[in-house]
Specification:
Layout (H helix, E strand, L loop, with lengths): L5 E5 H4 L8 E2 L5 H4 L2 E8 L7 H7 L2 H9 L3 H22 L8 E3 L5 E3 L8 E7 L2 E7 L4 E7 L6 H8 L2 H8 L3 H22 L10 E3 L9 E4 L5 H4 L1 E4 L6 E7 L5 E7 L1
Parallel strand pairs: 3-13
Antiparallel strand pairs: 1-2, 1-13, 3-7, 4-5, 6-7, 8-12, 9-10, 11-12
Helix pairs in contact: 3-5, 4-5, 6-8
The protein binds coenzyme A.
The site of coenzyme A has 23 residues, from α5, β6, β8 and α8.
Length: 262
């Protein structure tokens, strides 16, 4: 079963290249969380041997859901991410993984049931071979990881989901930079709607994020909630090659630590 973490960096360096200082075998705990956000990178390939242990932790409704996936790859991603989430929360809150109970908001965002639900906030994302789990003490947050596919008509997709000014930003970039910029935009937008919790009921064209890779990502304007830019921050997450990742958090100051779940 998982031995937990290998610390690989913090947000001081997340926007450019990742600091690779390594602290092995850090166990998650509530004290170390304090004002931090902990982000856990999960490799489905590396954790496939733990599948049955993760499966054994699931609740009856989660097992039912696991069996509804048509493709084994999607089932694996769900079971491993949900199992790892249970395992992590069990360490943060010093409770048994099997005793954790989730409920779902009207927009399907999973949250902890009482009495623990005021203690930590979390959000998960999965794509391709990887998942991300973000955990904070009390700031609402959303996370997104996307495998960067090159065989899609990105400009056509951008026209459907990006605002007019985001689309203009994208089209003005040299072609070689567009794929990264598109996925920066996609993950930043997705992280924000997941952090807010209303998901796709927030029109994707109703707010703008920055797209460029090197600058600090920002929420630039939001038509659906004029205050949002004052409260939310967006960060790049250093993901494996060919993946993009972003975190959105309702906080103006936080320290992000990225760990590998192993
Ligand atoms: C469900 C949605 C919130 C994210 O979907 P997604 O990107 O396909 O999937 P991700 O892996 O990033 O996230 C899924 C996880 O988000 C969580 N989630 C579900 N609804 C959520 C909500 N309303 N708010 C926050 N998190 C939510 C769940 O934990 C889910 O994982 P689980 O089912 O294994 O528990 C929704 O935004 C969606 O369907 N998006 C479609 C993609 C799209 O059009 N994006 C355009 C971006 S520009």
């Amino acid at each position: 079963m998982a031995k937990f973490s290998c610390f690989i960096g913090s947000n001081k360096v997340l926007n450019t290249s990742m600091n690779t200082t390594t602290e092995r075998n850090q166990k998650p705990n509530l004290d170390s969380l304090s004002d931090n956000v902990h982000i856990w990178l999960i490799s489905f390939k590396k954790l496939v041997s733990d599948y049955h242990d993760f499966y054994a932790m699931l609740s009856p409704d989660e097992i039912e859901r696991a069996h509804q996936f048509r493709f084994a790859k999607d089932r694996n991603a769900f079971v491993i991410t949900r199992g790892a989430l249970r395992k992590l929360i069990s360490h943060y809150l010093s409770i048994q993984a099997i005793d954790i109970s989730f409920r779902y908001t009207e927009y399907d965002k999973p949250v902890l049931r009482t009495p623990e639900n005021n203690t930590i906030q979390f959000n998960v994302s999965h794509s391709g071979d990887y998942g991300l789990i973000a955990i904070s003490r009390c700031s609402p947050l959303g996370i997104d990881i996307e495998e960067m596919k090159t065989d899609l008509d990105l400009m056509e997709m951008a026209q459907q989901v990006f605002s007019g000014s985001e689309y203009q930003q994208l089209i003005q970039l040299p072609e070689a930079k567009r794929i990264q910029a598109f996925y920066n935009g996609w993950t930043r937008k997705e992280a924000y709607i997941k952090g807010d919790g209303k998901g796709l009921s927030i029109p994707l064209k109703s707010f703008n994020v920055s797209l460029v890779d090197k600058e600090q990502p920002i929420l630039l304007a939001t038509a659906h909630d004029e205050q949002a830019c004052d409260h939310w921050s967006i960060y790049n997450i250093n993901t494996p090659e060919n993946y993009a990742g972003a975190l959105a958090i309702k906080s103006k100051k936080c320290q992000i630590k990225l760990f590998i779940y192993q």
